[in-house]
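pls design
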C-alpha cells in the first residue's frame, strides 16, 4: 500500500475516517469546484510552471493500453522527470484492499498517497493514476518517491490466491516497458518491494509475492519488447 508519511497506514485510515465523512457531507461541493478550477488553470498555464516544459494532454498515458484515471493532485507533486530526477527504481506494492477502493483513495485529496499504476487482479487491467513525469507519494520516503515509479497490485499480502497470474504478467510487461524507457537494469536491486524502501513501515508486497517468477516474467517481457522494436 502506498503512503507518503512514515506512519502506519491503518492508523492513518482510522484516524481520518471521521474527517473524510465530514467532508463528504459538508464540503464536497466546494472542494470539487476548487479542484476543477485548479485543473483547468493548470491545463492552460503549464508553460508558466517553473521547470516544467513537457507537453501534457488530458488522458495521456505512459504505458500503452493503460487506462488514465487521475489521482488527486494532492497525492503527488508535479515534476519533470527524468529531467529533474533520475528514475532508477520500480517499487512494487500490494494494495491490501480492492481495486475499487484503491482507485477511490488515490482520488481522495486527504489520502496523502497514490501510486503511478494500479493493476486489477481478475484481468490484469492497468490504471495509470499519476504521470511518470510526476512524483507520486507511494514509497513513504521522499528520495525514493522522486527516483521511482510505483506499481500497486490489487490483493492482500496474507492471501496468496489474490496475487493472480494474469496480474503478474500484466505487471511484468509494464515494468519491462518502464525499465526499457529509463534504462533501468532488470534485477532485484532496481525492482524492489515497498518493504525494501529505506525506513519503510509497510510490509507489502509480502512473503507470498513470487519475486523469482516476477523477475523471470519481466526479463521475458523485456526480450519481447526489444524484438518488437528491432
Ligand atoms: Zn506499499
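designed seq:
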Amino acid at each position: 500500500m502506498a503512503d507518503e508519511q512514515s506512519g502506519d497506514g491503518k492508523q492513518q485510515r482510522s484516524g481520518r475516517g471521521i474527517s473524510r465523512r465530514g467532508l463528504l457531507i459538508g464540503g464536497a461541493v466546494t472542494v470539487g469546484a476548487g479542484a476543477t478550477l485548479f485543473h483547468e488553470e493548470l491545463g492552460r498555464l503549464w508553460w508558466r510552471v517553473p521547470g516544467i516544459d513537457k507537453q501534457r494532454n488530458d488522458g495521456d498515458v505512459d504505458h500503452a493500453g493503460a487506462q488514465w484515471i487521475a489521482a488527486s493532485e494532492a497525492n503527488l507533486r508535479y515534476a519533470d522527470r527524468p529531467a529533474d530526477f533520475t528514475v532508477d527504481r520500480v517499487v512494487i506494492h500490494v494494495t491490501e484492499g480492492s481495486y475499487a477502493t484503491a482507485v477511490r483513495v488515490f482520488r481522495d485529496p486527504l489520502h496523502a498517497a497514490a501510486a503511478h499504476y494500479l493493476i486489477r487482479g481478475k484481468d490484469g487491467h492497468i490504471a495509470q493514476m499519476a504521470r511518470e513525469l510526476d512524483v507520486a507519494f507511494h514509497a513513504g520516503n521522499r528520495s525514493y518517491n522522486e527516483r521511482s515509479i510505483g506499481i500497486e497490485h490489487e490483493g492482500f499480502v496474507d492471501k496468496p490466491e489474490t496475487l493472480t497470474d494474469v496480474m503478474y504478467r500484466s505487471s511484468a510487461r509494464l515494468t519491462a516497458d518502464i525499465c526499457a524507457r529509463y534504462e533501468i537494469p532488470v534485477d532485484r536491486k532496481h525492482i524492489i518491494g515497498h518493504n525494501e524502501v529505506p525506513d519503510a513501515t509497510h510490509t507489502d508486497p509480502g512473503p507470498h509475492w513470487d519475486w523469482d517468477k516476477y523477475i523471470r516474467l519481466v526479463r521475458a517481457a523485456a526480450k519481447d519488447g526489444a524484438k518488437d522494436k528491432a
